[in-house]
Amino acid sequence: MTLQQQRCEACRADAPRITEDEARELRPQIPDWKQVEEDGEEKLQRQFKFANFAEALAFTNRVGDLAEDEGHHPALLTEYGKVTVTWWTHKIGGLHRNDFICAAKTDALFEER
Ligand SMILES: C[C@H](O)[C@H](O)[C@H]1CNC2=NC(N)=NC(=O)C2=N1
């Protein structure tokens, strides 16, 4: 199954961080995302461009709905014509498979907008 077809699992504090090998295998499915380190935590981040603020806000709310459906939540920065989405797993202070699934699902929302 592709990442977009998978569902997030309930993340637990003792959940395993994604391994470098797994990440390397999954990255081609989310080519527009970059892996960043912030406050010592690995995160996935992508900036989406829009025509104006209203479209950026509409997309923001759809990502919010996705987050609620999956029980997994991003950081969202909404600006005029831009939305920066950052996924990581707070409980483990780093990246879990869930974050790759949610990044792929976020791309699907952008593509079907
Ligand atoms: C109780 C609730 O399910 C947990 O706090 C969830 C909520 N959403 C979450 N989102 C993210 N990104 N990481 C988490 O660890 C997390 N935990």
Automatic annotation (TrEMBL):
The gene is phhB. It catalyses: (4aS,6R)-4a-hydroxy-L-erythro-5,6,7,8-tetrahydrobiopterin = (6R)-L-erythro-6,7-dihydrobiopterin + H2O. Coiled coil: none annotated. Belongs to the pterin-4-alpha-carbinolamine dehydratase family. The keyword Lyase applies. Keywords: Lyase. It comes from the Bacteria. HAMAP family: Pterin_4_alpha. GO terms for molecular function: 4-alpha-hydroxytetrahydrobiopterin dehydratase activity. Gene3D superfamilies: Transcriptional coactivator/pterin dehydratase. It holds the Pfam family Pterin_4a. This is Putative pterin-4-alpha-carbinolamine dehydratase. Transmembrane segments: none annotated. Its EC number is 4.2.1.96.
